[in-house]
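The data layer described in this paper is built around a simple, fixed record for each protein. Because each token names a local backbone shape, the row as a whole describes the fold. We quote a single record here, exactly as it is kept in our systems:

***
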Amino acid sequence: MGKDITISLKSLEKNLGQFHLGPVDLDIQDSLVILGPTGSGKTTLFEIIAGFIKPDKGKIFFENEDITEKKPEQRSIGLVYQDYQLFPHLDVYNNIAFGLKLRKLSQTDIEEKIQEIAETFNIKHLLKSNVRSLSGGEKQKVALARSLVIEPKILLMDEPFSAIDEEGRGKLIEEFKSFRRNLSSLIILVTHNQEEAYELAEKVAIIYEGKIMAYGNKVEVFSKPQKLKIARFLGFKNIFSSQELLSIGIQPPTNNEFFALPNDKIHLGSKRSLMLKGKIEMYESLRNKIRMIINANGIKFEKEVNKDFSFTPSEINLGIDPTELIPLE
């Protein structure tokens, strides 16, 4: 996927009144998911890469060529939006054919490419259909086919699965994961959905308040946040100040002010270098888990366990290894 394709963002900035993007510096060589909450700047960055918005500062390089001033149609980029952006007056066939006709391909070549991409997405039976009659998943397949049939070097996807119901979204994501293995395009996908980001990512960049706050392998980014804001955004529940840790006999491993403790690093009943007696203040049954709030000497820990976990709803021993605390900036 995207082999030998590189796009580099160098000190990109954009001022939009009360919101400022950047500076953003990224060298993208592997398919990337840009993850961030609403209003974080991910769509603005998407549109700068696509060429719809011109940055106030910085440069965009594609395969070492400066494309900052190039128009969108000159960037070899395919675009997929959450609301599909299909042409309602055209059937599926002509929606897919649109980019090919702009490139003045022969009718024979257009026919061949459309049949091939329709086979890939399993939509050959829909080619004569009006796009208004399609389901959300079918519309997104058509949008993907239209973007990929022109063989773009970069595929930009803006929340591509968010408008689809849960069942359809899961199925389409699995299909997308399957056929993307054969794509030569470098994929850049932006989303606010953390589960979707983790499932689809090779590399992840987290954008927050207009800045790239984390970038790297998805396992590292999700499991070892370096910043307090990002740990909270990623849903870490057990975040403690150094003073709170000291109050229960835990010596912080560094001089940082805050630390995160992952759910799987709170060991119930298992011996660790530090054992605490805790009282279960609350527990509730979730879909597949049980969530507990445990008070240990005035400090509250949140722990999720499997449904089959056996416990007495009163006191419980907590095992903690201070070396497993994550320092936060």
